[in-house]
Each structure stands twice: as C-alpha cells, then as structure tokens.
Design a protein that fits this description.
The structure is a single chain. The protein is of the alpha+beta class. The chain has a single domain (about 10-400), classed as Beta-lactamase, CATH 3.40.710.10. It is built from 14 helices and 14 strands. The strands form three sheets. The protein has a nine-stranded antiparallel sheet, with helices on both faces. Helix 3 (about 55-65) packs antiparallel against helix 14 and helix 4 crosses helix 9.
C-alpha cells in the first residue's frame, strides 16, 4: 500500500546521495537518558465488541515481537463493532506499556485539519481557493517562490503547485542532524524551500510537497491572526477534542501521556529520539505538529465524513481527487488521500511519517468503517520495522476486517 503513510523516505535518499553516516551522528546525539516520562491519561474507552478482536490483538502482538516498540490499533465498524488494542511500550526505558489513552504524533494527518480550515474560511467568504496565493501571502514570500504568480490556493491543497518540498533539502537535514533538530524556525524551512527548484509549473503535474501545507498555515495566519487559535475555535472546541493538542496549548509539546518515539538504527536496533522529535515539531506548521489520542482522531474523521463539519460544496472540493501519476489506485483531494484497496474498497484519509512515529487513519465509505493504526517507530528515515507496520500489518488488518 504505497501511500498509506505518504512521506517518501527523503532523508534516506539524501544520505545515499551525499554519503553521510546518519546513524553514527544519531548515536552520538542520543544517550541512554534521552527519554521522556510518558505518564498516563484517564478517559473512558468502550469495551471491545468486534468478533475478530482476538485476531487483531494477535496481529499487533506479532509485529511488536518482530521489534516494533509499540503499536495502537483502532477499528470501528457499524457492522462488525468496535476494537481498540495496544501492544508493546510507550517508553521502553521505563517499561511503560502502550495505553489506549496514549497521546500520539499526528505527522501528516495534520494536513487534513489545515485543509478543513482553508475550506471553512472559503465558506465564511474570507478566501477563494481559485485565487492566487499572492492574494494571501506576503510579497516577501511570493517573490522567493518561482512561478508564484500562477499558483492558486487550490494548487497548494492538492499538491499540484510544483513548489519544492523543504524536507528534501540536504543542507537542512544536515543542519538538523548537526544541531539535534533544535533551534530551528519556520523561517529556516521557508529558506530551504526558496533554494530548491520547483518540481514543475503549477498545474502541470502532481507531487506531494510538505511546503504546500506550511504555506497554507501562513495563509490562515494572515487571514485570522493565528492558525493555531483558529484551529482551536473551529475544530478542537466544537468537536470536544479534549485530548488533541497544538501550538496554542501551553502544555504543548510536552503533554501528559505522550509516547516516546524511536528510530531504527540498522539490523533492527532502535534508539530513542523523543527529544529530537519534539524539537522538530515545535517550528513545524501546517504539514505536521498535532498531537492527539486515537479516540479524538477517530471522532474527527467520523464527524468529517459522516457529519456536517463542511457544507456539501466544500466536501466536493475535499474529495475532488487529482490522480497520482505513479499509481492508478491513488488520488489526492484537498488534504485527503483517496485510495483503492484490495480489501475494503476505497478509503479516504491520511497517513504520516515522523522522525520517530508512523500513523495512518482511513475512513471506508462503503462500510462506514474507521481504521487507525500508529506505531512509535519512525519512517521519516527509512525503516524496515516501519515498512512492516505500514505495509504488511496494514494489509493483514484489512484482510481480516473485510475478508
């Protein structure tokens, strides 16, 4: 399943190109004490009613036995019932087990939230996605983006802008590693974006670029004053997402119950990168950064696809997919992937890869089923363990659920 976690293994590719000893640098920066006291949350989780609950639990147990630090799985089906299970550790160093109430990194699932905010602004008459980005971004930013005069807000939403993805910058990633991901700002990410050549002129092709959603967050800032506060007012509070955290929250990013995160160091050896993970998300806006429980994540997706979060015309834009030229089964709408699976049919949702975490959330419209899986092993760098989660385990889960 190619795009369930979308992020290409960019740093692995960069490392091959410039031949840097990534894992040596990582080892030097991560000591035995570089872990977080995860803590616990307490809130109500329904009892498991799914007839395949034991099978699902056995599946995630199997992949923890293969070396994945910890896994959480959420399934809610109108037909088959509810399952939520965990396996492994939220913090290996302290022996704290993964909990159903653990807080996880959303990675690129944050893009769905940002897309909703843009569409809500259009519903409020404060923005038109068919207009150029130069109407909503400063001249300083636009003058540094090649072909910016031809790029619409819609092109940012569906990744047809051609704008260079700042996370592909070898110079930026070398600086990340040199400084332990600490001390960076959104300005640094913009500078890395400016220096990269566009992938193509706007509208000529599709290419997933994190820069698009960083720019969308800045657009929301310019219109509302602060995209984090607008997120709080528009989504978090109305949906009562009490275990969802973003930059407007004074507890962010060190919230209670946040899992430790790990990265593979070759031959199934792992290192704790929790502090680096937090350093990385602090300056990241739009394309990642949200923290949430899986129950809050499920509530958000359920309301989005079965409720009235958006009006009908906005929902049409959300699901108006652009074809991924590399995969006939894959399209991207406005902040959501549209993917056709062997089991379960089409799903709408998103995945994400962070330095030390992997996540996917999918809504299957044919059955109304929601499936969310996350593991505290990173796939931002290439990871065999991460690939097992996002491909093998995911496919086994779908086969059991939709056989």
């Amino acid at each position: 399943m190619k795009i369930i976690l979308t992020s290409i293994t960019r740093i692995y590719q960069i490392a091959v190109i410039i031949a840097i000893p990534i894992y040596s640098i990582l080892s030097a920066g991560c000591t035995k004490d570089s872990f977080l006291e995860a803590g616990t949350n307490t809130f109500q989780i329904p009892d498991n009613t799914h007839p395949e609950s034991q099978t699902f639990q056995s599946l995630i147990d199997k992949y923890v036995q293969k070396g994945v630090p910890g896994i959480s799985l959420y399934i809610n089906s109108p037909v088959d019932g509810f399952f939520m299970g965990t396996s492994g550790f939220a913090c290996i160093e302290t022996g704290e087990i993964m909990s159903k109430t653990s807080i996880h990194y959303s990675a690129s699932i944050s893009k769905v939230f940002i897309a909703i905010l843009i569409l809500k602004l259009q519903e409020e008459g404060k923005l038109n996605i068919e207009e150029g980005i130069d109407n909503y971004l400063s001249s300083e930013i636009c003058s540094n983006i090649k072909y910016s005069e031809d790029i619409r807000v819609r092109d940012l939403l569906n990744h047809t802008s051609g704008i260079y993805d700042y996370t592909y910058s070898a110079a930026l990633n070398l600086a990340f590693l040199d400084k332990g991901f600490k001390g960076f700002s959104t300005h640094d990410f913009l500078e890395a974006m400016y220096k990269g050549e566009p992938f193509f002129k706007s509208g000529e092709d599709f290419f997933y670029s994190n820069s698009n959603y960083m720019l969308l967050a800045l657009i929301i800032d310019n219109i509302t004053g602060n995209h984090a506060n607008y997120l709080q007012e528009t989504i978090i509070v109305p949906l009562d997402l009490t275990t969802t955290f973003y930059k407007q929250d004074p507890r962010y990013p060190g919230v209670e119950g946040l899992v430790n995160t790990y990265m593979e160091k070759g031959e199934n050896k792992i290192i704790n990168v929790s502090y680096w993970q937090q350093n990385l998300i602090i300056p990241t806006i739009g394309d990642a950064g949200l923290l949430f429980s899986l129950t809050d994540c499920a509530s958000f997706f359920n309301t989005l696809f079965t409720g009235n979060m958006l009006n009908p015309s906005s929902m049409e834009i959300l699901l108006d997919g652009v074809q991924d030229p590399t995969d006939e089964n894959t399209q991207y709408g406005a902040g959501v992937w549209i993917y056709k699976e062997k089991y379960g049919g089409t799903w709408w949702g998103h995945g994400g890869s962070d330095l030390g975490s992997t996540i996917a959330a999918a809504f299957f419209p044919e059955s109304g089923t929601i499936i969310i899986i996350t593991a505290n092993i990173g796939t931002y760098y290439y990871s065999e363990l991460g690939e097992l989660v996002r491909n093998d385990l995911w496919n086994e889960i779908l086969e059991v659920e939709f056989k």
